[in-house]
Amino acid sequence: MPGENLSRDEARERAALLSVDGYDVSLDLRSAVGDQAGDGPRTFRSVTTIRFRCNEPGATSFADLIAPSVTAVSLNGRDLDPGEVFDGSRIALEDLAADNELVVDAQCAYSRTGEGMHRFVDPEDGEVYLYTQYEPADSRRVFANFEQPDLKAPYRFEVRAPEGWTVWSNGAGTLTDGVWRFAETKPISTYITCVVAGPYHYVTDSYSRVLEDGSTLEIPLGALCRKGLAPYFDSDDVFLVTKQGLDFFHEHFDYPYPFGKYDQAFVPEYNLGAMENPGLVTFREEFIFRGKVTKASYEGRANVILHEMAHMWFGDLVTMVWWDDLWLKESFADFMGTFANVGATRFKDAWITFANRRKAWAYRADQLPSTHPITADIRDLQDAKLNFDGITYAKGASVLKQLVAYVGQDAFLEGARRYFKRHAYGNTRLGDLLSVLEETSGRDMGAWARSWLQTAGVNSLTPQVLLSREGLVDELAVVQEAAESHPELRPHRVAVGLYRRTPEGALERYARAEVDVDGPRTVVVELAGAEAPELVLVNDDDLTYCKTRFDAGSLETLKSGLGSVSDPLARALCWSALWNMTRDALLPARDFVELVTRFAGRESDIGVLQMLHAWADSAVTFYAAPDWRPHGAALLAECAERELLERAEPGSEHQLAWARFFARTAEDAGGFDMLRGLLDGTTTVPGLEVDQELRWAFLEPLVVHGLAGEKELEAELARDDTASGKRHQVRCLAARPSAAVKAQGWAQVVESDALSNALAEATIAGWGQPVQRELLAPYTEKYFAALTRIWGDRSIQIAMNIVSGLFPSLQDSEATLDAADAWLAAHEDAAPALRRLVLEGRDDLARTLRGQACDAQAVNQG
Questions:
Q1: What is the reported pLDDT for 1?
Q2: How many H helices and E strands in the chain?
Q3: What pLDDT, in 10s, does the model give residues 21-70?
Q4: 534-555 confidence digits (pLDDT tens)
Q5: What is the Cα–Cα distance from 49 to 52, expressed in whole angstroms?
Q6: What is the rounded distance in angstroms from the CA atom of residue 547 to the CA atom of residue 145?
């Protein structure tokens, strides 16, 4: 990795020197099939012609390429010695002319890490599938280029592929004389070019729209997946959401979709959720559901489809200059995904999911020592890779939601329309967006940007209620606090809701005031004189980005009646606030677990319910005092069994969610016997269909507890001999409670690079089981000893997966904290990105210990 980095300063210098007129890229992918010659990596031929200008003739620069070998390099007709100009990641370019043509003939390597040209062999039928994934800087693994977002250019691709394959790229393609040739693209950045090739199952549709000038916009639609997933591929729903999204964005953006066709490829072993390549969006194939899933899964898929579609404008049409302004595409796409989901599709409650799930990701990221402003300081590509995080996505989207409330929806959308028209096919910085918003809203955006975009950290808002002798609200104030490390107090537009019980027992809002909170204390004069509330909810309706706290009376109300909050969004906000309090060691973990066991069964929103299951599991695993942990686990298991067998409606998605939670929490003989019975058919639950995905969910806990092993996993794989089944089997194999198994899993991931990215990820997921803490204890020392080697030897994506996934978070002791501190102290010169990951793991561990102390103190005080 060290030789593959690119600094911001280098990118600025190159952008000031060069401008690119176009690329011709020819790839020969016929080597993807058949036997491999030699012992080296499997390679393909890549020939690239770049036409570019230099405004300082005679100057020196470089092109980017990561490849095992370069056959030939020609600059302006003169042959260069590849051994002299190519160092493994860069091609030196000297004595440039005003107009230049660079031709590079290279042997590039197929990837097994999901970076560059990924090659996947389907274990079900032996078919080979290829796709590319580049963000932020892996197109240089496939063709020579200038790998930075502000050197945009049009591209012409041609691809030779094995007979019988289909090839897709950003533009429309035709097959002539064995060569796939693709229409030239509009000017786009390197990282959003794309090639997908193989015997994919392909379905087509079309979209049309009459534009304001009377012309008709026709967009060919396509959707593709592996042949083995074709029986499960609900392409009709994918196309439905796609068309709804195109309608929505055309209505709101007033800029026709600019990239011709719109294909969506669901590909195997994908590292991300999806990628916004114009004309050819790629998704992880797990969005094709092999078994029954809840509405939340369909909503999540729709949100990702719409997120990537928003990128066609925010990111592809208009692109940030450098990764500092990554938020100019990701924050907007994250906000627009939910905005469009609510406005255009059947998922009208998507803002509830956003409040409960996406913001939880943001709150965690914003409290880590690695937190950063939304407009971040990105020094190089390694920084950029790590900044695809909860701040850039979910906090940024939350801030944009606040911005819409601040400037008004009409002004916000008009600003977007001017932004697209003014900067189409160009690159922008923060100031370019702020200027159009100032034009459309009449507001000074400078102060807002400084508070919200250029500072880090999350504020807490707590209500203070004073009652009169008559029992009315004498004064209600909102107190704003900030962490000592990030003391900025921001302006918030919030709604404050007052709730009390109705005669029927429901907690309902009876008064609401919308107010600008600014500074440490803001009095909400509009609520003076209101009847005394039982619950005060700051940030009702989720207008701003903050951690909501409760006064003592409201907290007691929630402990006894959280399930009675009738509004689903308000209830989701209460759950989110209580979880943040648990993570912040302000609420004992056992109290949160008790709330879940009492009220989760009454949760109507399936996405919130599934989030509660995850949070409750984490509360017991990490934040509960160790001596109470077994009791907490038993409470969750009892709750899951009760809800599954007694309360969940047969055949409902709630029943499915509780069945999965029951499998995760099973911890006694009765629970394990029930799982065995569900697997062999001797036990049934009315309405519950045990499909293949659910079978794996039921089998895994038996494996974790040593009640099933390799034989049973081989039998299950025989039932499900697919790529998905293989990932399940690998995860379960690593989960077996054996010292030898743990040693084998460690060796496969840390000491070897033989596993593909997906199988390495599955091994890591199965290896670290909370009930196997003692088996994992010997690996703390090994982990810290291996870090620098891992970072130096592996690609950055795989290194990130290992460093984060194997951090010894289950060894929750001061000794582990000391070991992390010792490594950090001894490796001050380590790569900043590596140090960041270790710091994040260390901070999570410290938070765990604080939570456990809070939980233990609750017992002592009781």
A1: 38
A2: 29, 28
A3: 999 999 999 999 998 877 889 999 999 999 999 999 999 999 999 999 99
A4: 999 999 999 999 999 999 999 9
A5: 10
A6: 44
Which residues on neighbouring strands pair with residue 512, listed in sequence order?
497
Which among 553, 477, 485, 555 has a CA at the least distance from the CA of 517? 477
Amino acid identity, residue 557? T
Pairing of strands 18-28, 155-160: parallel
Contact indicator for 276, 192 with CB cutoff of 8 Å: yes
Question: Helices 796-805 and 832-861 sit at what angle, rounded to 10 degrees?
Answer: 20
Q: How far apart are CA 659 and CA 648, in angstroms?
A: 10
Cα–Cα distances (Å) from 508 to 462, 583, 812, in that order, read 20, 27, 41
pLDDT, tens digit, for every residue of 838-852?
A: 999 999 999 999 999
Q: pLDDT band at 405, cuts 50/70/90?
A: confident
CA distance 434 to 99: 36
**Residue 596 C-beta-side C-alpha neighbours within 13 Å:** 33
Cα distances (angstroms) measured from residue 56 to each of 74, 618, 837 = 20, 58, 41
Nearest C-alpha neighbor of 659 from the set 350, 291, 353, 311: 291
pLDDT tens digit sequence for 612-642? 999 999 999 999 999 999 999 999 999 999 9
- Per-residue pLDDT for 861 more than 90? no
Residue written as token pair 């260069």? 80
Q: Say which DSSP state 215 is in.
A: -
C-alpha 396/C-alpha 413 separation (Å) is: 17
Pairwise CA distance, residues 625 & 351, whole Å: 34
Contacts 24+ apart (CB under 8 A), 779-786: 779/742, 779/746, 779/806, 779/808, 780/808, 780/811, 780/816, 780/819, 781/819, 782/746, 782/750, 783/807, 783/808, 784/819, 784/820, 784/822, 784/823, 786/750
Helix segments in 735-813, DSSP class H: 739-746, 757-767, 773-776, 779-793, 796-805
Kindly tell me the burial class for residue 362, based on how many C-beta atoms sit within 10 Å of its own C-beta (0-12, 13-18, 19 or more). Answer: buried
Angle at the Cα of 632 from the Cα atoms of 628 and 634, rounded to 5 degrees: 120
Residues 6+ away with beta carbon under 8 Å from 325:
375, 428, 429, 430
Catalytic residue ranges: 308
User: Where does residue 168 rank: exposed (0-12), middle (13-18), buried (19+ CB within 10 A)?
Assistant: buried
Which residues in 380-534 belong to E strands, given as ranges?
A: 427-428, 460-467, 473-481, 492-501, 507-517, 521-523
Of 210, 74, 227, 67, which Cα lies nearest the Cα of 140? 67
